[in-house]
Amino acid sequence: MPNYQINKISDQFGVEVIGLDVSKNLNEKDTKVLKNLFHRNHVIVFRDQNISDEEQLSFTENFGELEIYPEVDKTKDSQKTYHVANVNLDGKHLTDKDEQVIFQKVNQRWHTDSSYRFIPSYASLLYGIEVLPDKANGGETEFVNMFRVYEYLDEKLKTKLEYLHMVHYYEFGRRMFPNLPPVSEFEKENIPPVSHPLIRLHPERNNSRSLFFTANAGNEIGGMTQEEGSCLHKKLVDIVSDSAFKYKHRWKKGDLLMWDNRCLLHRAVPYDINKYRRVFRRTTVAGSTAIKGPCLDPEII
Predict the structure, then answer these.
(1) Distance CA 61, CA 67 (A)
(2) I want to staple 255 with a disulfide (CB 3.0 to 4.6 A). Which of 60, 67, 128, 219 is the partner?
(3) DSSP class of residue 106?
(4) What is the overall mean pLDDT for the chain?
(5) What is the span of the domain harbouring residue 238?
(6) Structure confidence at residue 292 as a pLDDT band (50, 70, 90)
(7) Which residues of 178-197 are buried (b: 16+ CB within 10 A; e: fewer)?
(8) Is residue 216 part of a domain?
(9) Domain tally for the chain?
(10) Model pTM?
(11) Is residue 152 situated within a structural domain?
(12) Is residue 6 predicted with pLDDT exceeding 60?
């Protein structure tokens, strides 16, 4: 038996782990337990952590190769950590007019991390350094189970989505917030637009299906006009928003939250940016293969 406590955190999915210090090296047995726990529950909250950048990076590496962030002005100490905050690296509280804060408003829409890459990420780990007080409204991170969302789609819509792809691109945030500076030539070169199937097969789960799209990295559907594609995209966003298959995480200082980007969408719940400081550090486990859709035989790819 592990020497830490595991509790469910919602009726839908997710567990918390209490009593495990992730700053210490994991043994092979604990690593296997956590990987199995993650596979079954999609979300793990490691409570009461106190970890440095290096310790978070080291813990994340237990689950696979780390993703590198080519984006400028958002990393902290390393290209493998991501500064998610309305506070700059010098500790100054930024207003909602600051470019860094505006950029993070993009994440208030349903998304999965790094969907704009040819190989999207496997998992994200977000560490709560400064969190909102209990009395504050908003600031949570909300998740939705896309296995269940797909399962409950009507059959006519499932058939329609069978062979469709969505175009994902990093630059889409500039359409939502045109006052942001344009992406750099370096970013354009390293993160060009990609196309992913709207229905994702999961080989690690006997090719179970989930709905795969985002609301913050595009709204164009291959083979459709812009108007038709955006209309279908909006319908999918509304289905996800109205779904009952959710978990909303209210942050506590020291939480290290790990989630599965392959089968969940998530979003940051809006809050009073000018009133409250919110500081998080993210590491990301890279994916291992391009997304497989139902139009290809999963046995030969």
Answers:
(1) 10
(2) 128
(3) G
(4) 92
(5) 5-285
(6) very high
(7) eebeebeeeeeeebebbbbb
(8) yes
(9) 1
(10) 0.94
(11) yes
(12) yes
